[in-house]
Design goal:
The structure is a single chain. The chain is an all-alpha fold and 275 residues long. It has a single domain, classed as Ribonucleotide Reductase, subunit A (Orthogonal Bundle), CATH 1.10.620. The protein is built from twelve helices and no strands. The radius of gyration is 18 Å and the shape is globular. The N and C termini lie far apart (44 Å). Bound molecules: fe (ii) ion (2 copies). One fe (ii) ion (FE2) binds next to α5 and α6. The site of one fe (ii) ion has 5 residues, from α5 and α6.
């Protein structure tokens, strides 16, 4: 999987500070950290697939692309907020949050379930960066988010192809796939990792202790607020495919509409974080 772009392909000179939205900046600071933390995920995936050379090789290349996302977003953040100390924020994040790297078992229960969970994550990231691209008027972020959204879509396909290669549809029942997907979606909603990244990225060392409700809620509020129906439709149909349901079906069109409603309801319940 060759990266389709590099940092040199971004027109950094087009940066327009007047178009930076401070709330979006906070979200992008957190996203840059999560992306930059990809080497830990590569280690985890290589442990889980320790005797699968194809998957290990794919994980290495995937990790390089995710790291590049972190570097590109980090560079944009530096333009938008020149005083921001990314290295210090990232150090705090790594000190306080870690993946289970000393296991060769997937936290999802099986390799097939792990690949379904990876597809759900990539559905989330491609829809998120598409939403960022459409929401921002800042030209450099728009370009970077577009590049990243394309990569995340290809990552989905990568994990989906490996799921099929290891005979995932036979190994993982519909019920198991659905349960992994719902579990991963629930985690994304109350995500400690994103909340903690948001906290480290947007507070100074020595700030009040991490509060998941506040920082996880803030991240979710500003990130979810970017989504419009086409982004939600993309998220739902990619998730449906990973679970094994026809994305074009009446059921999934209905679930998409329901998800749009639930997003709005959730945003209303989180509005307190903006006060
Ligand atoms: Fe990424
Ligand atoms: Fe990705």
């Amino acid at each position: 999987m060759k990266p389709g772009w590099t940092l040199d392909d971004v027109d950094w000179g087009a940066f327009d500070p007047s178009k930076v939205d401070p709330n979006l900046l906070r979200v992008i600071k957190a996203s840059a950290m999560i992306e930059f933390n990809a080497p830990d995920y590569v280690t985890y995936l290589k442990n889980v697939f320790h005797d699968d050379d194809l998957m290990k090789e794919a994980a290495e290349k995937w990790g390089l692309e995710e790291e590049q996302h972190g570097r590109a977003l980090g560079r944009w953040v530096q333009l938008a907020d020149p005083g921001y100390d990314f290295d210090d924020a990232f150090r705090r994040f790594q000190e306080g949050y870690s993946l289970p790297l000393d296991t060769d078992q997937s936290v999802r229960g099986s390799r097939a379930a792990e690949l379904v969970a990876r597809c759900i994550v990539e559905s989330g990231t491609t829809s998120f960066y598409s939403a960022v691209k459409d929401a921002t008027d800042e030209p450099v972020l728009k370009q970077v988010a577009g590049f990243i959204a394309g990569d995340e879509m290809r990552h989905y396909k990568l994990f989906w192809d490996h799921f099929n290669r290891i005979d995932g549809p036979r190994i993982a029942s519909f019920r198991e796939r659905l349960s992994v997907a719902l579990g991963r979606i629930r985690e994304a909603d109350g995500d400690d990792e994103m909340g903690f990244a948001y906290y480290c990225a947007n507070t100074k060392p020595g700030a009040a202790a991490f509060d998941q409700k506040l920082y996880g809620g803030s991240y979710e509020y500003y990130a979810k607020g970017l989504y419009r129906p086409p982004h939600i439709n993309r998220l739902v149909s990619m998730t449906a495919k990973a679970v094994g349901v026809n994305p074009q079906s009446f059921l999934i069109r209905t679930v998409s509409k329901l998800t749009c409603y639930l997003f709005q309801r959730r945003l209303r319940s989180l509005a307190w974080v903006a006060d």
